[in-house]
């Protein structure tokens, strides 16, 4: 007789094994991972009526895309040229954009619907740039074009997504008041092209809006602008109309921003760079004597520290070259409290001190006194006492530590609590600075024998880094030799500003007065400095372009 019990257990074991295999097999199945991020904008599948339709009389335009989409910033991005009293109505119907046209179209007229960056896909908001639809209510379509490049007047870099637009000369008074209807955006190489233009005379502009802009209306306080001084007659296709954008200097002085900071200091920013600025506390007048003021290098921002913050309000007069520009009032909340941190920054970048510099501490608050006895300087963990703590003679935010630093040594400088006493008896907490001395062999010197094209003119010769930030500059007007001494090895460049008004700074343009920025020339030769090099190059400045 068969052993039924054994068979039962065998079947049970087989079922258990099968269940385990099924479990582990299922466990190995992973959730599908997402593919590459979608970075492609929607594509146009069809347009009804077709783009470039003549004798247009349709009530609606249907534009079908290959995916679902959305309309963003319609009031800023969408326009029709010529403008209409009643704007077209845009509606989304699945993957189709339905545009209802008004009944007020002019006869024998070419219209351009410009979508700017209004059309984007649903998921990633990838934008179709410079999408347009053109039609004519007559037999002909305007077919003239204008193209060129947009660059930055200071850096020479191509401007991506700058808005280039034209205004008929009779409508130029609308500049800065209303957005243009004929515009396009530059590509990544700064190129632009305006198509389907009507024969006429136009003013040409480029606009680089600040972050948060996008309305295509020039705001002098925040945007950069470029323009052609003279009106342009467009009666044929025109290429190579290049524009340079610049940040326009404000025509009038005013205080852009004023505030009492969380540490009790007072900050100001101005619309203009001042030449000989001065701030005076007029009320309460007693606070003016002990105040401390620090302007930035360009004299368009300032910070003020007062020894007494018990006031309800304070008045500050802003002057330049002895002339009163503006008086501002700041109010302090009665319950306002302030937090002060006396932990400084230092000039040992990446833990390395430039061997041609003194170790410098820079505080965010004025320091009234310091106690060197609370400082411990360790050289390779060995305590050293032959250092000096010196207050900067000009900048009241800085202290220097002088010591015969040595290469191949590591330094730890420990500052105990209360080493520094700042304004309002604020004191530092414990902090430590660590660094090594960078070898002199890592630095180099460049000399330039310079020839100028015209000794009656001024030139500003600037030594700049890869990011085109100026490091050092010289004002010259004759054949001379200049030296850029003891700079870290790396890539550097030379640019020259043609200082037409001989004021020693680069002046931007002004749209209202019709002035352009002072010209800048970049030397095409890279000035690479190799470790422990000292060399002299020749530089011939060309005539102003």
TrEMBL record:
Record-linked Pfam families: Big_5
The entry's keywords: Signal
Domain SbsA Ig-like residues, every copy: 38-137
Signal peptide: 1-29
UniProt source species: Pedobacter rhodius
Keyword Signal attributed: yes
Keyword Signal included in the entry's annotation: yes
Protein's name in the database: Ig-like domain-containing protein
Organism placement in taxonomy: Bacteria, Pseudomonadati, Bacteroidota, Sphingobacteriia, Sphingobacteriales
């Amino acid at each position: 007789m068969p052993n039924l019990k054994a068979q039962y257990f065998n079947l049970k074991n087989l079922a258990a094994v099968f269940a385990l295999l099924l479990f582990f097999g299922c466990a190995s199945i992973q959730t599908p991972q997402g593919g590459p991020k979608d970075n492609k904008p929607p594509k146009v599948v069809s347009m009804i009526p077709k783009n470039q339709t003549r004798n247009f009389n349709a009530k609606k335009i249907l534009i079908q895309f290959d995916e679902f989409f959305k309309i963003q910033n319609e009031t800023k991005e969408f326009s029709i040229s010529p403008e209409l009293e009643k704007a077209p109505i845009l509606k989304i119907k699945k993957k189709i954009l339905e545009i209802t046209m008004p009944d007020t179209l002019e006869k024998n007229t070419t219209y351009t619907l410009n979508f700017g960056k209004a059309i984007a896909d649903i998921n990633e908001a990838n934008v179709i740039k410079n999408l347009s639809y053109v039609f004519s209510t007559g037999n002909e379509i305007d077919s003239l074009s204008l193209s060129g490049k947009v660059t930055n007047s200071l850096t020479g870099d191509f401007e991506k997504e700058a808005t280039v637009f034209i205004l008929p000369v009779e409508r130029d008074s609308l500049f800065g008041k209303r957005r243009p209807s004929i515009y396009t955006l530059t590509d990544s190489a700064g190129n632009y092209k305006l198509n389907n233009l009507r024969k006429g005379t136009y003013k040409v502009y480029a606009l680089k809006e600040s972050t948060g802009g996008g309305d295509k209306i020039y705001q002098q306080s925040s945007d950069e602008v470029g323009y052609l001084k003279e009106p342009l007659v467009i009666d044929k296709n025109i290429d190579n109309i290049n524009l340079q954008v610049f940040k326009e200097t404000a025509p009038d002085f005013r205080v852009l921003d004023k505030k009492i900071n969380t540490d009790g200091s007072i900050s100001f920013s101005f619309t203009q760079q001042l030449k000989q600025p001065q701030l005076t506390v007029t009320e309460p007048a007693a606070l003016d004597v002990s105040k401390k003021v620090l302007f930035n290098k360009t004299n368009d921002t300032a910070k003020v520290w007062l020894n007494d913050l018990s006031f309800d309000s304070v008045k500050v007069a802003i002057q330049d070259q002895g002339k009163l520009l503006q008086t501002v009032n700041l109010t302090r909340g009665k319950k306002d409290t302030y937090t002060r941190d006396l932990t400084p920054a230092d000039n040992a970048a990446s833990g390395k001190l430039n061997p041609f510099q003194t170790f410098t501490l820079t505080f965010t608050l004025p320091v009234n006194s310091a106690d060197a006895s609370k400082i411990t300087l360790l050289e390779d963990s060995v305590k050293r006492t032959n250092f000096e703590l010196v207050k900067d003679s000009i900048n009241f935010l800085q202290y220097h530590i002088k010591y015969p630093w040595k290469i191949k040594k590591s330094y730890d400088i420990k500052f105990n609590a209360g080493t520094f006493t700042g304004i309002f008896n604020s004191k530092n907490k414990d902090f430590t600075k660590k660094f090594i001395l960078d070898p002199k062999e890592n630095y180099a010197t460049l000399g330039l024998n310079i020839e100028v094209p015209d000794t009656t003119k001024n030139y500003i010769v600037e030594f700049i880094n890869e990011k085109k930030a100026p490091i050092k500059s010289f004002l010259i007007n004759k054949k001379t030799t200049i030296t850029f001494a003891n700079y870290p090895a790396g890539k550097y460049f030379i640019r020259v500003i043609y200082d037409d008004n001989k004021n020693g700074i680069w002046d931007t343009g002004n749209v209202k007065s019709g002035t352009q920025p002072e010209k800048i020339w970049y030397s095409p030769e890279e000035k690479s400095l190799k470790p422990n090099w000292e060399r002299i190059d020749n530089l011939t400045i060309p005539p102003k372009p």
